[in-house]
Structures are given as structure tokens and as C-alpha cells.
């Protein structure tokens, strides 16, 4: 039986914790499960967000990641116009050696105990089969197998959303939505990165790729001979002549050093929480570079997961993902007119939508008392 507590480890609690509605630590010693579930907001609807399985240096860093990611999901869902709030689950451990059927079932029971406040699917370190195991004991899971009639792998929707965002940035920056001939660097060739390469090749872009692992690079270059591989992600950052840089691996990679070395005019990628700290975007802007807020441009997967929950067809979800073009363009135009950074413009819009929904929710409760 899993054990619940309504707080995170005490050493990890900081000011950011208290903007969240709920932070749960769930442990199951029998399966060695330790998971933090952070629910940032349910003002717009149940909290929707993936489950990350990762070995963290400390519990504090795991809690911080859950808090940051769940906040990002609230903003992502709000900007995508979805009737869902934001949450995230972080399983602490080695996803290669520590994953077991018993652990995934225990995790499913943890999510089920929240009674639908949190709906989850795959993320870094988890996949469709993992969610299928959790779904045996929890009905609040999404992105299951297509054979089961559900959405399946949502990474293709994320990649397509990035293409729409890049087209919007191209129109804003260069006056045309075409990516033909544009040089795009893709860092990280996992589920989303590989699909993004395919779409970019179809668009006629010149694609440069890199990953910390050699095997994904070999697979991508074999499948897409047009793609050019560089030595590693550091070399990609320094690659001269890039129009667009797409970070598609882990978060926090855009730091001060990258802001000084990167030459791309536009940054648009799938990774969550890309900025190591907010001032990095300002450094990009000072060099005339355009950073597109990650939670705006990488919302395609969340849109499809939400669509699965609401019973949307694949076509209906794809149409919704296409709206990322308009949302991205609106953020860029709002930032220009207000004299602020795109990240600030997106944050303001997301917070305004969440706050308005929370106020409506409070008024509704008051009317029934």
C-alpha cells in the first residue's frame, strides 16, 4: 500500500511551492516508488501533465523540477486554450534499472487516489507501455496505445506544433512563412526531435543535428541523408549560419554561455523549461535573437492528450495544433507592441487566463453557499 503526505520534503519547500494548489509525495517501499505529484492549478480544469522518470541528485531537485514543470503545464494549457490546468509527476529513480510492473502499478494507485484532479501520460523516461500498466489501476491516464483506441505517441503532434511555430516566427522575422532553405539545428534526437527532423526535411529546410548519444545521430542521418551531423550539442550551438535552433532534449540548457555563443536568429524547441534563468531571454534579445516561449510552441502533445480525454478525433486535434501558428504570432506581436519580451508577453496572457478562471470558479462557489 502506498503512503501519502500532502507536502513535499521539508528541505525542498520554498516560496514557489505555495503558488501550487497541492504537492504530494507518494512512496511505496515494496516497489521502491518515490514520486512527487505537483498540481499547480485546476482553475481551468483538471491538471494535465506527463510523468517524468529520472535519477535526480537530490529530493530537492526532484521537487523543484516537479514545481517548475507543473507551472509550465498550467501556462501551456492556458495558452493553448485547453480546459485543463497544469500538473506534473516526477518519479525519482533510474528509469532503466528501477522500472518495474510493481512500481508502475503503485504509481497508478497514487494518481488514482487523487480522484481525477490529475491526468497524466508519458514524458521523459516513461512511455506508452508504462502508462498502459498504470492504467490497469488508474483511469486518469492518456496517450495509450492506438490499438486500444487512444491517442498513442503524441510526439508527432509536438513536432508538428513546432513547425507551425517556426512558420509564425519566419513570417514575423523574415516576412514569409516558408522554411524552404532555412538552416535549422535540432539538438536532441529523441521522440520529438527525430519527428521534427522528418518534418523539416519535408519543408525543404537544411537540417543540422546533434545529440549527446551517438546512436540516435546515426539513425537519423541514415534515415535522412540530407541531414548534417555535428560532433555534439556544443558544436551545434557554435554552428555558424543557423536560422533556427531547436533544443529538444532536457530543460535548463539555455544559459548565459549559450546566449553568448549561439548564432541562430530564432530559438524554437520542444524541451520544457529551456531557460536556465529568465535573464537569458533578455540576453538573446540584446543580440537581436528571438526566443519563442517553450510552453507556447511545444503544446502539440498536450493538445492531443487533452483531445483524447475529450474524445476528439486525430483530425480535430491536428486542427487545434495548427492554431499554435496564430498563438505564436499573437505573442510576438503583443511583445512588440508592449515593448516586452515574448516570454513576458506569454506569461502575462497565461496568468490572466488562469486568474480569470479562478475568479469565475470562486464566484460560482459563492453563489452556491
UniProtKB/TrEMBL annotation:
Keywords for the protein's UniProt record, in alphabetical order: NAD, Nucleotide-binding, Oxidoreductase
Stored PROSITE patterns: GLFV_DEHYDROGENASE
Top-level taxon of the source organism: Bacteria
Record bears the keyword Translocase: no
One of the protein's GO biological processes: amino acid metabolic process
Binding site for NAD(+): 188-193
Occurrences of domain Glutamate/phenylalanine/leucine/valine/L-tryptophan dehydrogenase C-terminal (ranges): 149-362
Pfam families, A to Z: ELFV_dehydrog (PF00208), ELFV_dehydrog_N (PF02812)
A Gene Ontology molecular function term of the record: oxidoreductase activity, acting on the CH-NH2 group of donors, NAD or NADP as acceptor
Keyword Oxidoreductase: yes
Family as reported in the entry's similarity comment: Belongs to the Glu/Leu/Phe/Val dehydrogenases family.
Protein name: Valine dehydrogenase
Species name: Amycolatopsis coloradensis
Amino acid at each position: 500500500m502506498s503512503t501519502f503526505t500532502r507536502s513535499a520534503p521539508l528541505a525542498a519547500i520554498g516560496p514557489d511551492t505555495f503558488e501550487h494548489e497541492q504537492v504530494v509525495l507518494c512512496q511505496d517501499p515494496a516497489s521502491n516508488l518515490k514520486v512527487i505529484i505537483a498540481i499547480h492549478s485546476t482553475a481551468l480544469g483538471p491538471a494535465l501533465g506527463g510523468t517524468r522518470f529520472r535519477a535526480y541528485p537530490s529530493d530537492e531537485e526532484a521537487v523543484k523540477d516537479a514545481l517548475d514543470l507543473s507551472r509550465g503545464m498550467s501556462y501551456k494549457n492556458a495558452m493553448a486554450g485547453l480546459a485543463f490546468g497544469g500538473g506534473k509527476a516526477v518519479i525519482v529513480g533510474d528509469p532503466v534499472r528501477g522500472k518495474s510492473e510493481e512500481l508502475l502499478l503503485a504509481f497508478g494507485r497514487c494518481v488514482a487516489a487523487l480522484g481525477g484532479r490529475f491526468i497524466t501520460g508519458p514524458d521523459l523516461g516513461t512511455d506508452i507501455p508504462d502508462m498502459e500498466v498504470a492504467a490497469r489501476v488508474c483511469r486518469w491516464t492518456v496517450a495509450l496505445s492506438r490499438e486500444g483506441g487512444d491517442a498513442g505517441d503524441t510526439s508527432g503532434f509536438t513536432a508538428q506544433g513546432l513547425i507551425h511555430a517556426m512558420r509564425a516566427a519566419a513570417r514575423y522575422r523574415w516576412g514569409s512563412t516558408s522554411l524552404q532553405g532555412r538552416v535549422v539545428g535540432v539538438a536532441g534526437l529523441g521522440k520529438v526531435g527525430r519527428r521534427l527532423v522528418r518534418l523539416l526535411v519535408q519543408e525543404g529546410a537544411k537540417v543540422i543535428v546533434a545529440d549527446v548519444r551517438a546512436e540516435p545521430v546515426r539513425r537519423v542521418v541514415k534515415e535522412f541523408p540530407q541531414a548534417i551531423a555535428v560532433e555534439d550539442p556544443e558544436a551545434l550551438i557554435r554552428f555558424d549560419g543557423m536560422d533556427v535552433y531547436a533544443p529538444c532534449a532536457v530543460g535548463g540548457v539555455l544559459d548565459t554561455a549559450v546566449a553568448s555563443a549561439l548564432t541562430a536568429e530564432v530559438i524554437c524547441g520542444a524541451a520544457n523549461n529551456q531557460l536556465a534563468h529568465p535573464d537569458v531571454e533578455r540576453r538573446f534579445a540584446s543580440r537581436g535573437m528571438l526566443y519563442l516561449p517553450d510552453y507556447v510552441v511545444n503544446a502539440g502533445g498536450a493538445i492531443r492528450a487533452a483531445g483524447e480525454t475529450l474524445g476528439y478525433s486525430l483530425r480535430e486535434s491536428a486542427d487545434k495544433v495548427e492554431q499554435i501558428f496564430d498563438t505564436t504570432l499573437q505573442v510576438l506581436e503583443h511583445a512588440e507592441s508592449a515593448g516586452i519580451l515574448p516570454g513576458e508577453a506569454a506569461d502575462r496572457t497565461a496568468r490572466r487566463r488562469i486568474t480569470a478562471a479562478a475568479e469565475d470558479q470562486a464566484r460560482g462557489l459563492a453563489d452556491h453557499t
